[in-house]
Amino acid sequence: MKVRKVTLLLIPVVLITTIAIYLHFHFLDGLDGWFFSTSIFGDAFKEDTIYAEGYKDSLFRNIDIGMNFDEVLSILGPPLEKIVSKDNRIVWTYSMSPGAKSYRVRTITFQNSRVTELSHYFYLD
Q1: Is 112 left (phi over 0), alpha (psi -120 to 50) or beta?
Q2: Per residue in 48-75, pLDDT tens?
Q3: In Å, how far from its chain's centre is CA 90?
Q4: Rounded to an integer, what is the distance from CA 80 to the centroid of its chain?
Q5: Number of C-beta neighbours around residue 60 at 10 A
Q6: Distance from C-alpha of 81 to C-alpha of 86, rounded to nearest angstrom
Q7: Termini Cα distance of the chain
Q8: Is the N or C terminus of the chain more exposed, i.e. has fewer CB atoms within 10 Å?
Q9: Sheet arrangement for strand 90-93
Q10: Residue 31 vs residue 7, higher pLDDT
C-alpha cells in the first residue's frame, strides 16, 4: 500500500521534471530566459532586443562549432556588429539592446576563421 502511494506521488514529479528539462533545452534562452522575459515582472525585465536583418532563432540553431565565416554568412547573413578582441578572436553580434536594457544575446565567436563559441541567453539589466 505504501509503495503504491509513493509511486503515485513520484509519477507527477518525474513527469513535471522531464517536461521542465525538455523546455529548458527547447527555448534558446532556457527556462530562466523565458521566465524573466514574461510580463509577470511588468517592465522590470522588459525585453529590448533588436536582431540583424533576416535573423531567426531557427537559423541560429543550425550554426555548429567548426563552421567558417562563409558557412555562417550563408545561414544567418551579416551580423549587426563585428568585434575583434585583443587575442584575435572575432565576435559577430546578431542581437543587441538599443536602450541598454535586458535583451536576448546572440553572438558567434570565431578563432582562426572557425566558430569556437555560440552564445545565446537572456541578459538581465
Answers
A1: left
A2: 899 999 999 999 999 999 999 999 999 9
A3: 19
A4: 17
A5: 19
A6: 16
A7: 52
A8: N
A9: 81-84, 90-93, 103-111, 114-123
A10: 7
